[in-house]
Request: fold
Amino acid sequence: MTAERVSTGISGLDEILDGGLIQGRNVLMRGSPGAGKTILGLHFLSAGIDAGESALYVNMGEPQAYVEEAADAFGLNTDQIQFHNLSPTQEQFSKRNSYSVFESAEVEQPGFIAALREQIDKIEPDRVLLDPITEFRYLAGDKRQFRSGILGLLDYLKEMDATVMLTSQAGGTVTDDDLQFLVDAVVSLDVTPESRVVHVSKFRGSSFRRGNHFYDITDEGLTVWPTLVPGEQQREVEPGTLSSGVAGLDELLHGGLDQGTVTIFSGPTGVGKTTTGLQFLSQAALEGKQSVLFQFEEAERTMRKRADAISLPLQAALDSGNMSIVEIAPEEYTVGQFEHLVREAVEDGTEVMMIDGSQGFQENLRGLDNTTGALLRIGRFLRAAGVSTILINEVHNITGNFHATEERTSNLADNIVFLRHVEYRGEMRKVIGTLKMRTSDFERGLRELEITADGIRVGEPLPQLRGILTGTPEWDDNDGGEETGSSEGK
Reply:
């Protein structure tokens, strides 16, 4: 029999918890001061009120007026929440800068427990928030009394079939290992200078989504962005290829890029990776496919201007309504928020996506500890969702040893198209080739790539060019004869 779930009031957290909390059980929300535990608890109680349930807030922290002001600021429903206050009054708080809620001279344990049980019996709450439960330590003379007191309270609430959330001021020298052992579930809120992370370490009787998930506190309250899971979005891919609209480029790829695959355009700065990727993306939009560009490297206005200068059909693609550009400015998003943008784009029907590029991805997103892991996760999610994906990857070396990709993401790619600078008779030229295509055949030779005022031009194969993969390219004019012409874009 499937256990009945209750919402935490935060959809992203419910997703991590495989549908929400289990009714009639308890969860410990732990974290340092300022992590958002009280706000999360208010979401939990407000969701209960919205569902027609009764809610009790056992307040052992800030004065009730402060809590109500915070709830009102986030638009949460607190009018019907019953408060049982064990916190100092505002007058008491103003008289001293610090306080201890339970001081042995002020509180007698039997009277406190009796008053709390009386309140619980009176309200018969469906949801209870104990905030913060760590203040209970002041009621007990030793750890054994503290443990037995908490266990007795939780058992009493469980008999009433109440779903209970406890908050814990964990951090520094304060530990809550004993509390983690007593409760059914443990959720931790961790705060760093760059981001906020939530993770579940315990959830009796249920599966849950492991790992770190980003969250933030905004004017709308607390929001959680679950980490992408490959396969959570699945879509059948129609057979076919993405054409670039450039004859020579499509010939190099034996017709184009297979739909639903992940393609990496790899090369050093200035070689034309973004331009080539935009050619595919714009052409897809013009053919009716919903496309989106996540741009980490440059402003949209700069891209429009540059595209107009080389006759790339970017503006026409945008005017068609099938293409959009999302700029990702430095420090604007955490990696979790960006993954949420990717998920939303897929849910909205995006068929082709381009991420430009891996260097900006690494530098612009907050809380990104592992660039390779994040790119692999996003790429696998998009492949499972049937989205044709283009990732622009910059390698740092303009000359020297050949590297397929910089972030060691080549195993993610179904297709790798590399672009390189080469020198020929004192001139810098660009060449393009294909390193691999998992799902189709491709041309093994290299071709010259030109970016002109009339668009992208890709020439005929260059059998006289050798040594790209060794890092020392050479032209042999005796092998292949004269330079060949080029085929212009369609």
About this structure: The first helix runs from residue 11 to 16. The chain has a mean pLDDT of 84.
